[in-house]
Structure formats: C-alpha cells, structure tokens
Design a protein that fits this description.
It contains three helices and four strands, in the order H-H-H-E-E-E-E. The protein has 178 residues and is α+β, with helices and mostly antiparallel strands.
C-alpha cells in the first residue's frame, strides 16, 4: 500500500466512526427517555392501583397510604401534607414500593431523590414547560408527582431532554383523584 491509500482508508474509517458515535449517542438518549417514560408509567399505575385498593377499604404500603388519609378533611392543607410527608412523599423512601428506583440519566440519584412529590397549582403545559416549573431541584430522568387541590388531584410528570432542550416536563396519562 502506498501512503496515500493508507490515508484514504484512515479517513474513511474516521468518517464512519464519527457517524457511528453520533448515531449511538442519539440511541442512548432515546433509550434513557424511554426508560424514564416507563418509570413514570409504573408510578402512575401504582397510584391507580392504590386508589382502587383504598376504595375497597384495604390499607396499602407505605403506611402513610392507609385508606381515608388523603381526603381533604384529614389536615388543613391535605395536598401539602400528602406531597411532603404523606403517601406520595414516602413511596420512594426506604420501605416504599419505589425505594430502589434509579434515575436513568444520573444513576447516583435514587429513591426519593429521583421520585419527587410536590404540592403545586402551577400552570403546566406538557412537553413545553420545564421541570423547574414544579421542582427547582428536578433533573432529567426524575419523576414528579404533583398533588394539587384540597381533594388531592394527582398528576405524574417526568423530566427528560426534548430535542436540544433539557428538563422538559411531560405528563404521563391522566389525572388521578383521591
């Protein structure tokens, strides 16, 4: 082989590697967003199941999720108590159903750092509002459970990169009322 032929082969390999790396990074980002969406779906499904079980008068874990604890008469500000210290604030702590949850973007964020419950009546537009609208500490890959209203309307959102924009808030399924 001559030097020119070797340079051409190296250049072709370089171009192929560059295209492959860009495609691979897009695949990784897409996978992380899909995992975050699946995690949000699991949390939403857990909420729906908990509501059904509680409606039958059966208590569920964590203990803060006992039947009758989410009604607006239980505290002066039921939404705030439920979000910060109640059922939704405890599902990702030790002993909760999502204690081993890991954020796919930042695997060092686990449990209650990655599933966050907030009391908020902020106006949110799915797929265009940023996660900071509900939680200033939210990161890509976090699940945000928003409790709003005295009767505890619960929405599940997830934070993920959308195009070039970081931390875009996306609503998962419909509102669950407790």
């Amino acid at each position: 082989f001559s030097l020119i032929e070797l340079l051409v082969v190296v250049a072709i390999i370089g171009v192929m590697a560059a295209v492959g790396v860009v495609g691979y990074q897009g695949y990784i980002d897409s996978t992380k967003k899909s995992v975050t969406d699946s995690n949000a779906k699991a949390v939403h499904q857990w909420l729906v199941n908990t509501k059904t079980v509680r409606a039958a008068g059966i208590d569920t874990d964590p203990s803060e999720c006992k039947s009758g604890t989410l009604d607006s008469n239980s505290t002066s500000n039921a939404a705030s108590a439920v979000a910060s210290t109640g059922c939704f604030g405890k599902i990702a702590t030790s002993g909760g159903p999502f204690e081993s949850f890991k954020n796919p973007y930042e695997t060092t964020r686990k449990g209650s750092n990655a599933i966050r419950a907030v009391d908020s009546t902020s106006s949110v537009t799915s797929a265009s509002s940023t996660c900071d609208t509900l939680d200033s500490n939210a990161k890509n890959g976090d699940i945000i459970i928003r409790v709003s209203g005295g009767t505890s309307h619960v929405d599940v959102y997830f934070c993920a990169k959308e195009g070039d924009t970081d931390k875009v808030l996306t609503k998962r399924d419909s509102t669950v009322s407790f």
